[in-house]
Amino acid sequence: MNYRKRKIAILGSTGSIGTQALDVVARHPDRFEAYALVANNQVERLEEQVRRFNPEVVVIANEEKYAGLKAALSDLPVKVWAGADAIEQVVQDTEIDIVLTAMVGFSGLKPTVSAIKSRKTIALANKETLVIAGELITRLALENRTAVLPVDSEHSAIFQCLNGEGDNEIEKILLTASGGPFRNCSIKELQQVTKEQALCHPNWSMGAKVTIDSSTLMNKGLEMIEARWLFDVVPSGIEVVVHPQSIIHSMVQFRDRSVMAQLSMPDMRMPIQYAFSYPERIPSEVKPIDFFELSTLTFEKPDTGKFRNLGLAYRSIEAGGNMPCIMNAANEVAVELFLQDKIGFLQMSDLIEETMAKTGFIRHPSLEDYIQTDAEARNVARERSKNYNSIN
Ligand SMILES: NC(=O)C1=CN([C@@H]2O[C@H](COP(=O)(O)OP(=O)(O)OC[C@H]3O[C@@H](n4cnc5c(N)ncnc54)[C@H](OP(=O)(O)O)[C@@H]3O)[C@@H](O)[C@H]2O)C=CC1
Ligand SMILES: CC(=O)[C@@H](O)[C@H](O)COP(=O)(O)O
Ligand SMILES: [Mn+2]
């Protein structure tokens, strides 16, 4: 078959998604090339990646790490850049076909805007970008005639279920959730859970922030908003279904009541590779499902009384404007404080709710408004958290 090698910029190459993306590249050297690598702090890991994948350019976001990285790579022809502005610049390189956004949190927003404006295909792992500014991102993608392809496992599943469905109307999206490590805990038990317990996801090995989000069900709230923008579905048309085995990655129900589902073992190399190879499917090393070994797939309703973040996410998208941006910033602060043992598990929801009530609301925010809202909401959350102690 005749195809051109796709040149990929991997933003967040040293993280969980980034390293799995490089594994996909390594398995298909005839198809994909790691043209640019971007990380924040992990100089040694980045150096190893540069030596193995030979990119044209590498960016370290943390400028304090630049001298060390530059010295470590001084025997190689690779360009070495540093700082947040350099990330926005690197994604504009005309050689790049696909930008994989695999940084954590708010840091994904500006590089994604820059990549869309230079008409790159976005392989979107950084769900926070669509939570913060979904309306803006989808409008920019339309104006610049570029595709935002999902990498998040649930959204890749929905995307795959919609392939070939043309104009068939979606009746509802069934967004699956593992339920996290505390699915069967009582409120009393949730008061005592530790970060070590929260960092043990039952099915996936992921970065710390998304793992904590899974344990509070905030991940599902963020994913509901991500789905709202990717597939143009109203929030009430997205139902969360707890499916503890994480084999069905999500489903779509059509108006004739037929339901399409996508299944695979929980391995992110599947959706990452599909975003890279789309619209083709190419062979992968992902373990096939053994249905006889699995034997049971189960489903439950989420408990929004215990896991309040899911309800807060629905409230934020219903309010619209900059409210999901406020919620996202408050959540980033809450997760950080929980990981530092400064607040308890249940206090994360309290802090998010308070911050949503106390940060200035803007009905029609611009990119600049989102940046200011993020800063304001972080300040509000940090100030309010001083009234908390780590006992729930
Ligand atoms: N992990 C998973 O399986 C899934 C993740 N996602 C989403 O993908 C995104 C990445 O998650 P994950 O890979 O788990 O996270 P990790 O924490 O494992 O990795 C984050 C990566 O981003 C880099 N990074 C962090 N901050 C910055 C910054 N300011 N500028 C540039 N680079 C930065 C880190 O660099 P360094 O390490 O050098 O500091 C690291 O390479 C998140 O939005 C998450 O929600 C979605 C679905 C599944
Ligand atoms: C792998 C992936 O896409 C994660 O977002 C995953 O979905 C987390 O699992 P839960 O949030 O369902 O526990
Ligand atoms: Mn997911």
Please give a handful of descriptors for the protein shown.
single chain, about 400 residues, alpha/beta, Rossmann fold, Rna Polymerase Sigma Factor, Chain: A, seven-stranded parallel sheet, four-stranded mixed sheet, about 45% helix, globular, binds NADPH dihydro-nicotinamide-adenine-dinucleotide phosphate, binds 1-deoxy-D-xylulose-5-phosphate, binds manganese (II) ion
Description:
Its EC number is 1.1.1.267. InterPro entries: DXP_reductoisomerase, DXP_reductoisomerase_C, DXP_reductoisomerase_N, DXPR_C, DXPR_C_sf, NAD(P)-bd_dom_sf. The protein is α/β, with parallel strands linked by helices and 392 residues long. It has two domains: 6-150, NAD(P)-binding Rossmann-like Domain (Rossmann fold, 3-Layer(aba) Sandwich); 156-266 and 291-385, Rna Polymerase Sigma Factor, Chain: A. Helices cover 45% and strands 15% of the residues. It is built from 17 helices and eleven strands. The chain has helices at residues 16-27, 43-53, 66-72, 84-90, 109-117, 127-143, 153-162, 187-192, 195-198, 208-216, 218-230, 269-277, 291-294, 308-319, 323-339, 347-358, 367-385, and strands at residues 6-11, 32-39, 57-60, 79-82, 98-101, 121-124, 148-150, 170-177, 238-242, 248-254, 259-263. The chain has a seven-stranded parallel sheet with strand order 4-3-2-1-5-6-7, sandwiched between helices. A hairpin with a 4-residue loop joins strand 10 (248-254) and strand 11. Helix 15 (323-339) crosses helix 17 and helix 16 (347-358) crosses helix 17. The longest helix has 19 residues, at 367-385. The N and C termini lie far apart (60 Å). The mean pLDDT is 97. NADPH dihydro-nicotinamide-adenine-dinucleotide phosphate binds next to helix 1, strand 2 and helix 6. 1-deoxy-D-xylulose-5-phosphate binds at residues 152-154, 177-178, 180, 204, 210, 214, 219-220, 268.
